[in-house]
Amino acid sequence: MAPHKSLRQMLIDAALEVISEVGAERATNRMIAQRAHTALGSITYHFDSKDDLLCEAFTEYTRRSVETINQHFAAVDSLESARSALVSMVELTISDTIVGSELYALALRRPRYRAILQAWSRKCCDIMRTCFTADTVFMVDSLYQGVALHRNIFAQDFPTTRIRTAVERLTPEHSYIGPGSNAQHNPM
């Protein structure tokens, strides 16, 4: 039996769904309350403002994202499995890509959202740095962000083969420092 979600969590989940459909700026408290199947007053009971709710929603989104990336990297034991983890990380669902892009857009002008984005990016890069050099992580993170934006802006699908090719080009053998590598035992 699944654990019962609190109303607060239901509102956060509903906010993420609404953001994915109409964007953060167009999301209204009414839309979010309707999606959560609750009274509009529930939002003001649990959150001081729409902005507080959106910040909580984006924080939850980034927490889930980091958890997923952690799961992909947990089984890494070679360069090939690390590359596969990166490919999985880059292959986002359209919904996740939209929510992430909304966070990027808000982070450009609003420090509160910038802090959420920076913490998210730092955590993701920390995970990748367990397997790859800092320079490689920078390049792969740029690929990740670029693919996310291109998927939204150009409504373009990126086949797994194209993503895998990009990851392979960005992760030469010498850049791998994770489990089973020579660098793991002989750090530079």
UniProtKB/TrEMBL annotation:
GO terms for molecular function: DNA-binding transcription factor activity; transcription cis-regulatory region binding. Keywords: DNA-binding. Gene3D superfamilies: Tetracycline Repressor, domain 2. Residues 28-47 bind DNA. InterPro entries: Homeodomain-like_sf, HTH-type_TetR-like_transc_reg, HTH_TetR. It holds the Pfam family TetR_N. Residues 5-65 form the HTH tetR-type domain. This is TetR family transcriptional regulator. It comes from Corynebacterium tapiri. The lineage of its organism: Bacteria, Bacillati, Actinomycetota, Actinomycetes, Mycobacteriales.
